[in-house]
Amino acid sequence: MATTGLGFIGRTTLIIIVLLGLSGCATLRQFGPSVQVASVTPGQYIALKRGDILTTGKLSSATMETLRVAGLDEGVCAKPGLPCIEAMEGSIVVREEDKRSSLAELWLQYAMTLPAPKREYSASGRAKTAVTELDAEFQPRLDAWMQVARQAYAYLFFTERTANQRGFEDRQTQVRDYYNLAVQEASVQLYNAYATGRVRNDASHFQLGRWTFVLAPADEASPLDTRTPTELVPAASLSFTGTLRSVHRRDGFGAELVAVMDDSHASIAPAAAGSPTAPALRSWSEMPSPSMSVLLRFSGKNLWEVLHDDSPELEIHDPYQVSEVTLHGQQVPLAANFTAGYALWLARSNFSHQSLRSLFGGKGGIDTPHLYMMQPYDPNRRVLLMIHGLASSPEAWVNVANELMRDDEIRRDFQVWQFYYPTNMPIAMSHDAMRHTLAEVFQHFDPGAKAQASHDMVLVGHSMGGVIARLMVSSSGDHLVDTLLATAQMTPAQRELLRTKGAPVLTFVPEPEVSRVVFIATPHRGTDVAGTRLGRWIGRLVRLPLTVLEDVTTLANDGQIDRNDGKHGYQMNSIQNLDKDDPFVRAVADLQMSPKVRYHSIIARAKAEGPLEKTDDGLVPYWSSHLPRADSEKVIVSGHSVQEATPAIVELRRILHEDMQAHGRGSN
């Protein structure tokens, strides 16, 4: 039978064609969902959102999306490099905000492919070899890092939205990190070039290739350290282990760096009195490795001008002094690392070996006291002075100082100083040396005693350091001299020395700068341990520094110095001074502290069981640490090194806040 119109096959073909037309450009193999979905875990979702070239080694999802929108994800941008960067710069289909953030990451990806000089550090954090770069490699690396900084800066401050409007976006955090890393790398390269004489510079301009760095004026309240660094270390390149419990940072804008200075105590003071030519070594020094925060500020009234600024302003800030900066009308926090410089100094100091060698008079110890300032001197911050104990050093305070400086209010009100002294010296001489050192420091910085730093000092003394702290706030009159002459078993030569040279050391009044003291595990009335057979044996091993022997050791019949001072007369060393039966420590316990000074006790007991009055911390008994009229007393279950225990640091923090409130400076 004949058929009319389309046959079955023709009608079927027509239907398929219509369906294909309705589905756009679909093909037969694309039947089914054009968009597919798969489940991801919360962790995978966060990683997808926040992963970028720094954290995963791959471009972020935001940059990849921008490349796709611009049609650059394949072809020219299949590999990282300048062609991809140039193509993105020329794109007209993406908004400026996305373009600048993507270019910052693309420049970063390119910078990371360029060969970099190796930074090798020993276990102490000291550079093993000098950092050198070939000129052929230097300029491309510097250009790449500067482009990262400039593109990131443009995104943050010169695109459609302000930084505040993007405040909670992950992308802004990523780009801020690109800027901080770029400033870090550019700063280190600039320093290395300057150190090797490859920078043309005058008083405030440093020219390196196409870039001119203009040094910004110092902060009014924080003048730049005039010392020249021997090394510039990125804080992010350092990882600390050992006793340090935490790293204290402040997230924000800028590169976190450590400027390593010469720490050989070679800073020279004016010539000593009566010696017109011979200079004297200072008995104090500022932090040998201060932390700093560095910014590059690009100038311009609009985006185009910023992207063509090859003369950025280089700002160097003391993070203790400056917490935020104003950039193009916006207040932004200044990035800071408060731990890196302090920890790097301790890692390189070798204090742990020095302290024991000093106690026993061995080679490699110290024989003169030294005061360390943990930051450049600040006239507007009060002094928190820490004094370590027997066979110890500034390392004893590593977590105390670090965790106290984590507290914003304490950091704003106090600057930490630490007194380092040879603990084989008699306590009276260590105390006298500290008084003279403080007098020298205040005379140098504030001879008129007008600055806040010269008033209301807080002393914190651990163990024997607490005994020294007590002497600082006590009045002696003739009590110490008379008691020693009456009760100590001395040779005639020792008695003569005590009358002629000892009297000035043992006669003092309270230091007027001090208003509060915290005693930690302090043997005010001595210890049982020092008087035991073991204590006496160790005491005989202690040898006084040669600088002290000439003044206080036993004199033999021929008038010559007898270095073996333990054989005759009164043993004049620190361990003997800590014996509960020693005439010196018994006399000190009777001294009256200044009524103007508030004082507190932090006491350790090794075991929680038993009557408090019969406990001890393994070295110091409670009856020796307890002061009946203390403003507060905190007893902690701990060994003798209780200053490092978290409850002790919490208590010390409470005391400092109480002190700030008393001076109208704290808020809680």
Characterise this structure.
The chain has an 8-stranded mixed β-sheet with strand order 9-15-17-16-18-20-22-23, with helices on both faces. A 7-stranded mixed β-sheet has the order 1-2-3-11-10-6-4. It starts with 7 loop residues before the first helix and ends in a 6-residue tail after the last helix. Helix 5 runs antiparallel to helix 6, helix 6 packs antiparallel against helix 7 (170-195) and helix 15 packs antiparallel against helix 20 (583-589). The chain has 668 residues and is of the alpha/beta class. The protein contains 22 helices and 23 strands. Helix 21 (622-625) links the parallel strand 22 (598-605) and strand 23. The radius of gyration is 34 Å and the shape is elongated.
**Total DSSP E strands:** 23
Major sheet strand order: 9-15-17-16-18-20-22-23
**Helical element count?**
22
Tell me the radius of gyration: 34 Å
Contiguous uncertain segments of 5+ residues: 16-20, 22-29, 266-279, 537-568
Approximate helicity band = 25-40%
Structural class: alpha/beta
Overall geometry: elongated
What share of the residues does DSSP label as strand, in percent?
5-15%
Kindly state the mean pLDDT as a whole number? Answer: 82
Largest sheet: 8 strands, mixed
| Cα-to-Cα separation, first versus last residue | 104 Å
Main traits of this protein?
single chain; 668 residues; alpha/beta; 8-stranded mixed β-sheet; 7-stranded mixed β-sheet; 22 helices; 37% helix; elongated
